[in-house]
Amino acid sequence: QVRIVESGGDLVQPGGSVRLSCTISGRGFDFSNFGMGWYRQAPGKRREMIVRMSTRGKVEYADWAEARFIISKDDAKNMVTLQMINVRPDDAAVYYCNTNPPCPDCWGQGTQVTVSP
Predict the structure, then answer these.
(1) What does the pLDDT look like over 69-99, one tens digit per residue?
(2) What is the CA 101 to chain-centroid distance, rounded?
(3) How far apart are CA 112 and CA 64, in angstroms?
(4) Bridge partners of 51?
(5) The dihedral of CA 82, 35, 78, 37: what is its sign?
(6) Residue 69, Cβ neighbours under 10 Å: how many?
(7) DSSP state of 21
(8) pLDDT tens digits for 14-28?
């Protein structure tokens, strides 16, 4: 069974930055064979995709997302990171990573990003 663990969420001031990390493990799971994505869910809203990366390194952003979200993937560490810069109040949410496309039964607990002066 695949296990996803996100970390790095924090209280961030508007205009600040934060780096989120995610590790994925599982028996028989070959991280290098999967694209990865970051998603988020704000209070009262549906979970949405932010950015995703294919196995070949192609990066796609949601229409609303900007280059403020930088995704990177380290196959050697089974890790994917999300660097957020120039954080805005509406970035406050629980952030999740998952495969691309997402594995519906694999969602982790997410990591909370709170934005406040």
Answers:
(1) 999 999 899 999 999 999 999 999 999 999 9
(2) 13
(3) 20
(4) 38, 61
(5) positive
(6) 20
(7) E
(8) 999 999 999 999 888
Structure tokens at 35: 């694209």
Indicate the SS3 state at residue 89: helix
> Do 96 and 39 contact (CB within 8 A), yes or no?
yes
Question: 44-57 burial string, b = 16+ CB within 10 Å, else e?
Answer: eeebebbbbbeeee
Q: Which amino acid is at 115?
A: V
Tokens found for residue 64: 């609303």
* Token pair listed for 14: 């508007």
The Cα 50–Cα 97 span in angstroms is 10
Question: Going along 29-109, which residue ranges are E strands?
Answer: 35-41, 48-53, 59-61, 69-74, 79-84, 93-100
Comparing CA positions, the residue from 97, 88, 10 lying closest to residue 51 is 97
CA distances from 62 to 6, 104, 109 (A): 20, 19, 22
